[in-house]
DNA sequence: AATGAATGAGGGTTCATTCAT
DNA sequence: TATGAATGAACCCTCATTCAT
């Protein structure tokens, strides 16, 4: 059969991405079949191959897309002139909000790395290191100019990212605390980790 | 063919557990076949079914086994008379050491929960909540007796666990810092989160 | 590989049906593998699943197809105005000829009922009862109008059907008697069972 | 483990036979596993092999056992001096009663012949022909001495056996007619087939 | 005589992928 | 661009059978 009226290639590709994202996040890459993705958007499995050469490419595109968008999103909001305390707070806010809005992308970014073939894996790892360098640089700067008292910038960076990202696994809209409240708590926790004071962070 | 000379059921079951643990951690539950597990220990796939009724049961046993052993291990080392600062330090040391020794178990405990069927999932979730109550109780106690100044016990608990557990994803024996050094850093970071002082924590 | 040039789904489905019929009749449902059916028609086992969702569905379709075709075939040849003796003779001729032409369908209809799951089983049972009602009605009519002297219409119906159908298990083209001769004998036997006379049956 | 207290080889073999008979009749030879038979009598599958060399041998023994017992049972009750009409009535009574009591054996005798390997198959076929010769001889004798008016002894024999045996597929203890009543009806039907009269059969 | 652990083969079914249409 | 039919490999699991114990 020919293309459905009104559908375009770009549209279909986008719907495939969205369906794959949802299903990979819910069940895991290995447990999701191309047929399941296709069924989710009402096409046959074969149709996906007009847009993505293999299932692996689909995963890779989701992961690189996420990392690139993440970094680009930070570049869009970052204010290079901020002092380290303010820069750190901005980063924490950004990270929490961004990751909560993309919890599926975050989840598969951590979970499905091992399902990437070597070359693709290396590419994502590099992007991740690029992103981790953002808070690490802020911590280094704050350490250098005396605004922070940091035990170890690298360990603190990793600890902080793990702490912040972990929120996506337990945060619920209907929970005891609002997102604003949780965000405020996390900002204070980070401040303590770098021995800042809330007012001065 | 019949049983190999000298083999016993308990031994084989244990070797299956170990191989499955390793492979699930490396590639993920869905991506590991029963044949692959069997090959790892030099038997045919069918032999596994003498010891585990299904692949799902094998996963479930690994996960419940891990959580139960984890909790039991804490019970074995905990000193109920410790003041909160000392109790918290003991918990941090325990958690880091235990999780680093069992990074594979930790990894699949977080990764493969979604591959558990509903009933099994609920069982594990309960065990996890049981474990999380341990540091949460310490924080509550320390908050009550004034040894800690905690922003929010629940959020702090989750943040702390995420931070500590995250170490398993990046720690390497050959890294810049020794385990002792990293442990010391994490203890100080936790101390800051509860606004203790290192000397008094 | 993709579809072979010139192949269509309907064709393949029909070839699967024919191969399954032959093999089920020869070896029994449980003893025939999907791979064996596929090999018979020169495709891979997986291809069958494009046309039948499960092996059980394939069996069910053969059995319901047979019963429905059987009943439809009778409806096509029956002459409602015939007197009971002529109607009974017409039915006997029909049953013998039809069942001999479809000895494989007949065989699996009797043999493989137990391999049907409950719902499918019930459906076939109903169709069978529908068919049995045909001769039973003729006997009842002939009993009512005095053309037959029947001991018990229900038992006679079952006895007659068993007797006629049994022929498919021993009839051979190369046997002592031709089909016409056997048919004539069976008509006379039935006539005796209802105490008709050959000339008046 | 050693033998259970009180069990003997002969006992176990008999329990295997009984369990296999029941399960083969219910589900068919190919669909019943050695494990299922073993479970039915509370032993492990391996134990069966102390009593029967293969699954095929088990089936063969059931079938030959049935046919031999059937023929021996007839030999035990037959009265060689009876006139054909009385002999035929005696045979009908015997066949109905015997087959109804052994409906499972009868069923698998007809169903599972095809699951026998060639040599075993031939053996059973011979026994069946031996049994069929019993009514056939009675009909021949009655034909010869004028007590019967038979259309064709061979076809009549097959028709009669099919008719009588078919009863096992629909008879229910709780049905409309008692076994005695059904038996009486069948005797009259057979009498009509050989053109005897009830009183003279 | 029975268990329990194992084999090697094969079961039904699903899968990623291909390609004629 | 999409379908639908096909492949060939793989999957989980079960099987008949064997044999050390």
Automatic annotation (TrEMBL), chains A, B, C, D:
InterPro entries: DNA-bd_HTH_TetR-type_CS, Homeodomain-like_sf, HTH-type_TetR-like_transc_reg, HTH_TetR, KstR2_TetR_C, Tet_transcr_reg_TetR-rel_C_sf. Pfam families: TetR_C_24, TetR_N. GO terms for molecular function: DNA-binding transcription factor activity; transcription cis-regulatory region binding. Residues 33-52 bind DNA. Residues 10-70 form the HTH tetR-type domain. Keywords: DNA-binding, Transcription, Transcription regulation. Coiled coil: none annotated. PANTHER family: HTH-TYPE TRANSCRIPTIONAL REGULATOR BETI, HTH-TYPE TRANSCRIPTIONAL REGULATOR RUTR. This is TetR family transcriptional regulator. It comes from Hoeflea marina.
């Amino acid at each position: 059969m020919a293309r459905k009226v009104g559908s375009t290639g770009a549209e279909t590709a986008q719907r495939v991405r969205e369906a794959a994202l949802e299903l990979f996040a819910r069940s895991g890459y290995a447990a999701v079949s191309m047929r399941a993705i296709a069924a989710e958007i009402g096409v046959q499995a074969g149709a996906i191959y007009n847009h993505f050469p293999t299932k692996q490419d689909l995963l890779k595109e989701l992961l690189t897309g996420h990392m690139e968008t993440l970094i680009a999103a930070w570049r869009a909001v970052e204010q290079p002139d901020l002092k380290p305390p303010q820069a750190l707070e901005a980063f924490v806010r950004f990270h929490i909000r961004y990751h909560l809005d993309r919890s599926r992308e975050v989840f598969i970014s951590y979970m499905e790395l091992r399902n990437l073939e070597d070359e693709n894996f290396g590419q994502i790892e590099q992007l991740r290191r690029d992103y981790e360098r953002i808070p690490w640089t802020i911590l280094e700067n704050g350490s250098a100019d005396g605004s922070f008292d940091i035990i170890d910038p690298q360990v603190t960076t990793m600890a902080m990212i793990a702490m912040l990202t972990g929120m996506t696994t337990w945060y619920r809209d209907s929970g005891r605390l609002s997102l604003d409240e949780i965000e405020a708590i996390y900002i204070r926790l980070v401040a303590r980790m770098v021995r800042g004071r809330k007012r001065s962070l």
